Amino acid sequence: MKGFINLIKPSNMSSAYAVGVVKKKFHLPCGHMGTLDPMASGVLPVGIDKTCRLFPYLLDKVKIYNATFEFGYTTDTLDVTGETTGTTDIIPTREQIETVLPFFTGEIEQMPPKYSAKCINGKRGYQLARAGVEFELQPKKVTVLSIKCTGQVAPNAFTFEISCTGGTYIRSLARDIGEKCNSLGVMSKLERAQSGIFNLSNGVTVEELKNSDNPEKYLIAPEDSVSFPKAILTNEQATRILNGLFDDLGYADGFYRVYNQEEFWGVGQAINGVLRIKAYVR
Asked: N or C, fewer C-beta in 10 Å, the chain?
């Protein structure tokens, strides 16, 4: 059994619980790509068994989020689930927000939230923060492809559509946009609408999967998750590669979807014409 389940996680559910639903349905080890906070909803790609080996080749795929930011206060978690740590009477207008958004597109430096899954000396940031341990984070470079203010839903709340690559913290954007507008900001709602090929239209809800007598129908083929060119090997070539015998097959440098005839094997990398399997999912 191979493939991905594009799970549509509801808010107020942990990513670990959602993955557990998939495990119970398929009775195989599973893993997910890109943790969603419990308050967040949307696309949560789950790999079945060996399919998880493809995750490193999906991390740089485009992600699209729909978010709501509230201005006028901030919290220790940078979202509405945390404790208020500051307030202000300054609420930016939509025009003021749109004026500062260009500062947050392209490659930018971003300070991660302390309440995050970021690892610090073997511990998750949220574990240290909840325990009251003081620690310092370093800014990281992230890429925001576009960010648009799409509406105003309350006197102090605005909606946004954000397109970015992996590793971008949407809560940090709420904080930083607020500060750029001389205000304070938090994230009050988040939906991941897309992660690479996985989107809201090709997913299955947790309840639909729970109640399905045929969960296999929701599987997305592993080879559909990566967009590298094909490398189709003969049986002899495939056998030699698996036995550690690497020949110059004339491939240009780069990554490939590797097939033995028509069966997908996984992702390979060619260097100086020599192809090696990097993620074997057969």
From this structure: N
